[in-house]
Amino acid sequence: MAPQLLKGKKGIIFGALDERSIAWITALKCVEAGASIVLTNAPVAMRMGEIQKLADQTGAIVIPCDVSSQEDVDKLIDQSVEHFGGGFDFVLHSIGMSLNVRKGKAYTELDYGFNAKTLDISATSLHRVLATCLRKDALNEWGSVVALTYIAAQRVFPDYSEMADAKALLESIARSFGYHYAVKKKVRVNTISQSPTRTTAGSGVKGFDGFIDYAEKMSPLGNASAEDCANYCVSLFSDLTRMVTMQNLYHDGGFSTVGVTPAVVEKM
Ligand SMILES: NC(=O)c1ccc[n+]([C@@H]2O[C@H](COP(=O)([O-])OP(=O)(O)OC[C@H]3O[C@@H](n4cnc5c(N)ncnc54)[C@H](O)[C@@H]3O)[C@@H](O)[C@H]2O)c1
User: Fold this and answer.
1) Within a domain: residue 2?
2) What pLDDT is attached to residue 163?
3) CATH code at position 92
4) pLDDT on residue 26
5) What confidence category does residue 268 fall into, taking pLDDT thresholds of 50, 70 and 90?
6) Which among 266, 173, 177, 263 is positioned nearest to 223, based on CA atoms?
7) Pocket test for ligand 1, best of 12, 14, 18, 21 (most atoms within 8 A of CB)
8) Which among 204, 222, 205 is positioned nearest to 213, based on CA atoms?
9) Residues 21-47: b if buried by 16+ CB within 10 A, e if exposed
10) Residue 44's domain spans which residues?
11) In the prediction, which pLDDT does 226 show?
């Protein structure tokens, strides 16, 4: 049995689309570690996805929420508090969507209508969720919020396009809101900067196969898997990391600090 690091804790998990989703695997790990969870995703994703299967496996309820709708987020938080019979302890924000990438628009020729939607869904949504939880006092003291990000927020990966800007904004919101939530309620907010991972969102990046192989060769430990990421999320939701907040935490097998490796030079 997994260590019961989350025994008695309750949380909301955004973004489980299918079995490959980082959120899907995190949901399983959180429940294994003793947590009770609410699952949520955009209504459109639920029609495509298999979230009910995960709900059956984890004893969770599913509450639809398009994270760009304030009305949906209000309902999600209210219904979760009602379901749990009070406040909850953790939130996983595992959401990404680029309309320009999806529509094949190059970074130098962005459609700004699409861009606004991308930033809203992929980044501002973290602010919306945090602000709603704070207003409704829904997160318990020493609660923990984790959002998933990528190193394209710091370095240029040309095909990551507008998602790089979205991730930079997401990380900034985690820091800025993390300050206020810590002072007001002792709630912590962090981002995990994950290795490239084969999921629906990941595979949407142009040239993903080359990209993931390159990262593997550049990372002394190799790429971090979705399962590794899920375990890291469990540790951040647990009381063992109570004093960690407002951080962007690299979870990438060492990729972020390496200049070059013999494996990459050999390929040249
Ligand atoms: N896969 C990778 O290579 C990788 C690397 C680093 C970070 N990440 C990040 O991890 C997170 C999870 O992605 P994933 O790789 O598990 O892919 P995924 O496609 O399984 O998950 C993305 C989720 O976002 C949800 N979503 C999109 N629009 C939404 C909306 N309006 N409201 C609510 N939910 C919405 C989707 O339905 C989906 O469940 C994302 O933030 C992604 O950017 C992924």
Assistant:
1) no
2) 97
3) 3.40.50.720
4) 98
5) confident
6) 263
7) 21
8) 222
9) bbbbbbbbbbbbbbbbbbbbbbeebbe
10) 10-267
11) 98
Q: Looking at the 3D structure of the chain, how many domains does it have?
A: 1
In short, whether 225's Cβ falls inside 6 Å of ligand 1 is no
Q: Pick from 50, 95, 167 the residue to mutate for probing ligand 1's pocket: most ligand atoms within 8 Å of its CB.
A: 95
pLDDT, tens digit (0-9, with 9 covering 90-100), for 187-209: 999 999 999 999 888 887 788 88
Spatial separation of the C-alpha atoms in residues 268 and 266, rounded to whole Å:
5
Report the 10 Å Cβ neighbour count for 196.
25
Distance 147 CA to ligand 1 centre (A): 10
Residue 45 in contact with ligand 1 by CB distance below 6 A: yes
Pocket test for ligand 1, best of 94, 233, 248, 256 (most atoms within 8 A of CB): 94
d(CA 225, CA 238): 20
11 Cβ contact partners less than 8 Å away, ≥ 6 residues apart:
30, 35, 36, 37, 38, 88, 89, 90, 91, 92, 237
- pLDDT recorded at residue 172: 99
Task: Note whether residue 262 is domain-resident.
Answer: yes
79 is a domain residue: yes
Active-site residue, selected from the candidate residues 107, 112, 160, 179: 160
Residue 162 belongs to some domain of the structure: yes
Q: Is ligand 1 within 6 A of the CB of residue 94?
A: yes
- Which of 150, 181, 232, 250 is catalytic? The answer is 150
Residues 6 or more apart whose Cβ sits within 8 Å of residue 263: 217, 218
- Please confirm, yes or no, whether 179 is among the known catalytic residues: no
Question: What is the pLDDT at residue 207?
Answer: 84
Is the CB–ligand 1 distance for residue 167 below 6 Å?
no
